């Protein structure tokens, strides 16, 4: 029985790996975009994006980070995770579009996958939006307090 509890605990801890990766990358990426460090300037120039797009992405990443780290507000978290999938997936697609190799597009693709995993592995019962699945065909919306 102790082995089963250890495995359960290990699985619960393993869920935090993609969450930690996404939160760390989003925080660092937001700062880098807003500070317009040389790496960001070179990447945007290479991809053909205007520099003001770095400000847009940095602000969006900061807002997503705030939504993910703030307790409650499950719908806002959904949108934050969805936005980050678009950010990281778009980065991977941009590198593919200009003919870059896997050394450029693999990390953004991995962060897109981590973002999907982080959202998918969140506990559902504690989510206030969980009653939506229980309502089924009742056709009424749950009232949040």
Structure in words:
The chain is mostly helical and 145 residues long. Helices cover 75% and strands 0% of the residues. Helix 4 runs antiparallel to helix 5. Mean pLDDT is 86; it is low at 130-139.
Q: Main traits of this protein?
A:
globular; mainly alpha; 7 helices
Low-confidence stretches: 130-139
* Coarse morphology: globular
Contiguous helical run count: 7
Count of individual beta strands: 0
Mean pLDDT: 86
Class by helix and strand content? mainly alpha
The major β-sheet equals: none
User: First CA to last CA: what distance?
Assistant: 40 Å
Strand content is under 5%
Helix content: over 70%
Radius of gyration: 18 Å
Order of secondary-structure elements: HHHHHHH
Could you write a compact summary of the structure shown?
The protein has 145 residues and is an all-alpha fold. It has 7 helices and no strands.
Which helices and strands, and how do they pair?
Blueprint: H1 2-14, H2 16-35, H3 38-47, H4 52-69, H5 74-97, H6 102-120, H7 131-135
Helix pairs in contact: 2-4, 2-6, 4-5, 5-6
């Amino acid at each position: 029985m102790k082995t089963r509890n250890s495995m359960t605990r290990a699985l619960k801890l393993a869920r935090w790996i993609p969450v930690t990766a996404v939160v760390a990358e989003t925080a660092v990426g937001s700062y880098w975009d807003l500070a317009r460090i040389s790496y960001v300037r070179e990447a945007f120039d290479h991809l053909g994006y205007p520099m003001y797009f770095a400000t847009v992405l940095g602000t969006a990443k900061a807002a997503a980070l705030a939504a993910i780290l703030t307790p409650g507000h499950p719908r806002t978290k959904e949108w934050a995770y969805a936005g980050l999938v678009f950010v990281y997936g778009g980065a991977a697609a941009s590198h593919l579009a200009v003919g870059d190799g896997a050394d450029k597009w693999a990390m953004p693709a991995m962060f897109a996958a981590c973002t999907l995993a982080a959202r998918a592995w969140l506990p559902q019962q504690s989510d206030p939006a969980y009653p939506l699945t229980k309502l089924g065909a009742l056709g009424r919306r749950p009232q949040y307090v």
